[in-house]
Amino acid sequence: MIFFDSPEAEKLKKLISDKKLYLSKLDSNKFAFQQTQKEIIFLSEILPIVLSKSNLVHSEIAKYSVKAFETALQYHCNDVLIAFHIDDNYSDKPIVGIAYPKLLEQFGKPGAMNLIIDNMDGNGAKVSPFNLPLNELM
User: Fold this and answer.
1) With the CA atoms of 78, 57, 95 and 124 taken in that order, what torsion angle do they form, in degrees rounded to the nearest 10?
2) Separation between Cα atoms, residue 9 and residue 55, nearest integer Å
3) Which residue among 6, 47, 92, 107 is buried most deeply as judged by most CB within 10 Å?
4) What is the mean pLDDT of each run of 10 residues along the chain (138 residues)?
């Protein structure tokens, strides 16, 4: 499956990128640095909303995720694992992104968990798990 972001989402992503670049160039003006940092955080928080409302794929993923989360709550689950297939066209080593907020927690803390991806797809290709740096993506 190949998908494209809406023009609104693309503009917002570009704005965030531009502000991050501007932020890296601010040296002496502490107030401007803090204000730009606040703007980046705000824009990063609304980007998922824009994506879910302006792109059919994102909208369907949001609906499916909420449905899975609510179902997990009804069954008194402690965690829910949701996987979305993105693209059938990959090289000999497919990459599986892992988004888990407590992934970097040390064992012994409540909620810390080691997630393991089986090392093979349906055609026998070895899978490369990748921990997604979510704070850097948005």
Assistant:
1) 90
2) 9
3) 47
4) 68 92 86 91 87 72 88 89 76 77 67 67 73 64
